[in-house]
Amino acid sequence: MRGFQGNNRFPVLPVISRVLREHYLLLALGLLLSILLSLCLLDGSPILPNLSLLVISPLLLLNILFACFFSVYVRQKSLREQRRLYDIVCRITENGSEAFFPTLVIQLGDFLGADYVHVGRFADPRGDILKTLAVCRDGQLEDPAEVEVAGAPCVKVFEGVCWSAGRGLRHRFPDSALVADLRAVSYMGHPLRDATGEVVGVIAAFGRRHLKHGRRAMVLMAFLAQQASAELERSRVQQAMERMAYYDPLTEMSNWRFFRERLVSTLAKSQQSSQPFGLIFLDVDRFKNVNQSFGHEAGDVLLRLFAERLASTLDDQAIISRKGGDRFFVLLPHLLAVADVRMVAQRLLAMLRDPFEVQGREVYLSISVGIVTCPADGATIATLLAHADAAMHRAKELGGGRIERYVPAMGVASSARLGMERALREALKKGEFLLHYQPQYQLKTERIVGDEGLLHDRLSSCLVGAESLIRWRHPERGLVLPMEFIPLAEEAGLIEEIGAWVLEAACCQLQSWRQWFGPDFKMSVNLSARQLYDPLLVDRITSTLTANGLRPEDLCLEITESCLMGSVQESQQQLQRLRSLGVDISIDDFGTGYSSLSYLRRFPVTALKIDRSFVQDIGGHADHQAIVKSIIALAEVLKLEVIAEGVETEQQLSCLYAAGCRTVQGYLLGRPMAAQDFATLLLNVHCDNQSDRYSLVG
Ligand code: C2E
Ligand code: MG
Ligand code: MG
Questions:
Q1: How far is the CA of 468 from the centre of ligand 1 (A)?
Q2: Is residue 168 part of a domain?
Q3: Cα dihedral angle (376, 381, 387, 393), rounded to 10 degrees?
Q4: Mean pLDDT across the stretch 642-671?
Q5: Per residue in 202-233, pLDDT tens?
Q6: How many domains does the chain have?
Q7: Is residue 411 a part of any domain in this protein?
Q8: Do 70 and 170 fall into the same domain?
Q9: Which domain range does residue 476 map to?
Q10: What is the CA(469)–ligand 1 centre distance, in A?
Q11: Ligand 1 binding site (Cβ under 6 Å of any ligand atom)
């Protein structure tokens, strides 16, 4: 860097020439004074007129010498000040961005002889609060703080370029806490502007005495304000670039790159300190439905709302990142116990009990959550991520809206999934799917006289319907149950095609059995969420029923509670269309899905199917008995039919009957069976007219 290093020899000729150039007025004045003085001295003197020359010459010489020294003095002073300014500027600009503002306030305070200097930017868009970036009070740096702008001298600064004030400051700004606190009598400030010229902050100095260096101080202030503005702009751009590099623009959460870096450092720390940490991977269930029903823009809004809710549910230490689409990772760097991860995951499920509002419509979401902990479930980033992924997929396979912790068997499952998907596509082409049918019975009692002449209440059952349940005749694995492939078919986008096949096959089968039954026999078909929102569903059902000569009342569609997650209005509309058609709709696995019962009133369903888990415990578990009773009571109020599924014992059957349930389905009465077995059953029922088997002593 070039500094102010001059030549040591005194530059005589340049000085004289500069004196003549710059101080000719001073010289002319001195010359005139010398002539006047000599004329006065010699006026009327008998001495030779040459004498006047003798007097004038030394005076003139003295005059020239004085002018020279004066010029040199002024020049040296100016050079000193320039050198000081140059040093100040160098000291400030040489510093990195972190020390830039602190150095600026110290140096500026020193130059101006100010007691307090601060530089700050507006904390809010309206410019009411100034957030200081550096503060120097009595030569010492202070912690940055927030200063109220209203009533402070800086409001004058924002009006123009540079503004300074001397005495009377306290009277002019009686509301300024800073002026009062400092007992300031002088002030100088300059606005900071962004690239568009908008005022974004201020640099200001306060003094208990007058600030030094007047005009030069203003020049320095203006220069430093320009530098500070540039520094602010630079840091703004840098922050924006960092944001772009590390943040997800849609949700404003950290992106995958940032998350991965934090994961690496958390793993390293965990390995040093043996402190466990947790990882949660979550995926919004059936988010494609939302995009399909509302459009992608609304889908983005919903994702943002979801991300906000996610962030507000977790504490500050949790690091959340969107892994693209509707998938999110949560890193829990500080765990006290492994069970903590599950508790956090449960909070995430609970946060979705309330709906979101998109385009004025209510939307319910559910998530599938996979959890892992380190070191228990993996010691490298790759294994932890793969295991979290496997656990999340398992949660999805089990119907979504649930939490799964990684277990080693899942690893195998996840690699097998790809092969399964290929095989599923083949299965559709090769016609490897088939339907089994499980009978559904209506219960009633009749009073009979027993052998001993005592009256008995006999519980009899009457076949009223069948539920079609899909199976896959796998060439190597044999008969595969739906839970193993339906979730995968949903994910792979094959469910619409499979569902259409099921509907066609079930209706065709019902039509061929028609001759055996009265008009009350119904065929139930399970629908997956994606099918429910298929815009072609209503037309497809209509044409299938017509093609098979069936009435809409012959068909019952079973949907699970989680199918109704998503847009409330959309679900209502679709169910309304189906109801208008005349088909029945029952809520399958009722009680396991989402606990808000308020939606039941709003959806036009005709029946509730009490989930197997409640039925199985009905005899032993008081809670489950109470739940079953309240479901039945609720159904009565809403005028809905109730079907209990999974009835395996006579005790369960009588408990259900006592609780008021009249329609049942379960292994006790009939397992799901192939079409020809079901035909045999029908034949028997048709011949006996009733199947009376169960008796309750009355
Ligand atoms: P789901 O609709 O709740 O069907 C009842 C399930 O419970 C059937 O399992 C049935 O075999 C089983 N089950 C019935 N009675 C008993 C019992 O007394 N004890 C026990 N332990 N289990 C009983 P499955 O056939 O494995 O079907 C499982 C699920 O797969 C079904 O649950 C349904 O959600 C889905 N699913 C089946 N077929 C289809 C289909 O065609 N399309 C769609 N989308 N899903 C289907
Ligand atoms: Mg079902
Ligand atoms: Mg069920």
A1: 9
A2: yes
A3: 140
A4: 94
A5: 999 999 988 887 777 888 888 888 888 888 88
A6: 4
A7: no
A8: no
A9: 423-690
A10: 6
A11: 438, 469-470, 481-483, 486, 499, 502, 526-528, 558, 588-589, 612, 645-648, 666-667, 672
